[in-house]
Amino acid sequence: MNLPPQLPDLPLFRTIAEAAHELGYPAYVIGGYVRDLALQRESKDVDVVCVGDGIQLAQAVGRKLPNRPRVTVFKNFGTAMLPTPDIEVEFVGARKESYRAESRKPEVEAGTLEEDLARRDFTINALGLSLNPNDFGALIDRYNGVQDLQDKIIRTPLDPDVTFSDDPLRMMRAIRFATQLNFDIDPDTFDAIARNKERIQIVSQERITVELNKIIMAPKPSYGFKLLFASGLLQLIFPKMAALQGVERRGQHAHKDNFYHTLQVLDNVVEAGADLWLRWAAILHDIAKPPTKRFDPKVGWTFHGHEDKGARWVPGIFADLKLPLGEEMRMVQKLVKLHLRPIALVKETVTDSAVRRLLFEAGDDIDRLMTLCRADITSKDHQRVARYLRNFDVVEQKLKEVEEKDHLRNFKPVITGEVIMQTFGLSPSKAVGELKEALLEAILDGKVRNEFDEAYAFLLELGQRKGLAPQPAGAAGTAPSAATQA
Ligand code: ATP
Ligand code: MG
Fold this sequence. Notes:
Blueprint: H1 11-23, E1 27-30, H2 32-39, E2 45-50, H3 54-64, E3 72-74, E4 79-83, E5 88-93, E6 95-98, E7 107-110, H4 113-118, E8 128-130, E9 139-140, H5 145-151, E10 153-154, H6 160-166, H7 169-181, E11 184-185, H8 187-196, H9 205-216, H10 221-231, H11 233-237, H12 239-242, E12 249-250, E13 253-254, H13 258-271, H14 276-284, H15 289-292, E14 294-296, E15 300-302, H16 306-320, H17 327-338, H18 341-347, H19 352-362, H20 366-375, H21 382-406, H22 417-424, H23 430-444, H24 452-465, H25 482-485
Parallel strand pairs: 2-5, 10-11
Antiparallel strand pairs: 1-2, 1-8, 3-4, 4-5, 6-7, 8-9, 12-13, 14-15
Helix pairs in contact: 1-3, 6-8, 7-9, 7-10, 13-14, 14-17, 16-17, 18-21, 19-21, 23-24
Bound molecules: adenosine-5'-triphosphate (ATP) and magnesium ion.
Magnesium ion (MG) is lined by residues 32, 45.
Domain HD/PDEase: 254-378
Family: Belongs to the tRNA nucleotidyltransferase/poly(A) polymerase family.
Cofactor: Mg(2+)
């Protein structure tokens, strides 16, 4: 850490100071940029607050910069953005805000620097560095933000009930920053989240999901989910996930707590370098365990079909959370559906045919599926985990061999529906689909190689068994033959 934070000696800051001075506006670098200077994190943007008109200041700065960048003005917000080669600078006039109970949209009025700092979310985000000639670079720290950075604490500058009730999104932000930075949340602040959790309902799902995805992208997302659960927020924003928590016992049979298991799997895929969507697949892989839970006196707890039900749930969950509904969603859905398959291969003797089928179904997502499945091997018994992982290596090796041999990852049968129709003079019909399916099965079973001559010979054989005669060359694809009508 770099405490107290120091303003880097950039010409940009001198220029802003000069322009602010000419306009007679006290100006400060404030918020996330100052925090990130202390934490030695990279920042994407700088926020400048002036006691005056932020848009005017931005325009004055723009005129002074060598390449005269274009200022983008957001009139409704009273802010202006100035792109510079290194970083974007956002200008705003100091403001005070008052909130109404039913909305998180504040009434905004011009205010003093003190008022502006008081409406910030956390003490570590309420630090400023002066851009004024008389004390250029001086630290403004009204709420002991530097101490909280030192102690790694997230705390609201004002009474947390006021801060959170004013803008309930801050509850998500508190947990997001704690997770990203690996900070604790001050107990009074945390208690206030639990007390005010219901207020999250007035926040749009889009904004909640932005914070949720930032938690998920943190180095150890399980921490954030534990905070969300402990505060009661998770139960409101993602009840299906909260429902994974808990253990039920009958006699000596107890199942594992699927919430903590899911978090372990999530952290495991993160360790393996997962992107956002593989992380989502980890979160959702067991999501349908609660409704599929049964007790069987012979074998104990079962969750039969949870992978299929979970996969069916994925579109609805994505829609509710306002996550994108395209390719990413389909990939997550596929991973949820297939997540038991590689581990099932560990238990059986691995046949080429089973491996081929898995490769065919997983397609390009096979590597992600294997990462998820490996991450899914959790147990308190380390020897058991190690044994499973060793067996898993065997499956992975086998996958590699079969893939190299048969290239099933982007597998397309060499015999297309077109070829089938032409061969037997068929028009699109159930018969064509059945032939295609039978060919695919034979190839996946390894009875026939996916190579034209061999597959074509097999097709003729299949046709013969069904009483289909090949069409003479030239007549292909014309009127349906007698055979189809039969
Ligand atoms: P990051 O850019 O990593 O999300 P940040 O702290 O820069 O973190 P921004 O959303 O860019 O967050 O906001 C910049 C600053 O504006 C914050 O540091 C904080 O001082 C203030 N701020 C942002 N959102 C809120 C909010 N909902 N309530 C109060 N203050 C806020
Ligand atoms: Mg920022």
